[in-house]
Fold this protein.
Amino acid sequence: MESTNNRIKAAGLKVTLQRKILYETMLELRHATVEEIINHVQAKDSAITVSTIYRILDSFCQAHLLSLVFHPDLGKKYYDITPTGHHHVFEGKRIVDYMDDKLTEMIRQYLKENHFTTTNIDDIQVQITINNSKLNSKK
């Protein structure tokens, strides 16, 4: 597995202790709100300021080290350690990555067949929300 330093360098960013701590935090958390990230990063190094964390998160998103996903039930933005194209399953507070190239290609083909210009599409993300209250009420 590629090291944290190599991933940060490959994204065109300078490796700093703060960036390394934040990236390693995201490797642990996988999906996290900014509040969760701040708590975890400052637990590792209390000298890292909130403004520094925000700046690093922005630079990581611009460098495609992280991506953003919006949780439809919680109404919160989450940072995602998996920046490549993929889908999400939401179950309660849990977010699970769902990799399915066949589904992505099927959607792209459908759009093409329905006269939608697919050449301008950067990303396709399907969000699947599981409603546990409905599952529990059937028991």
User: Anything to note?
Assistant: The chain is about 45% helix and 20% strand.
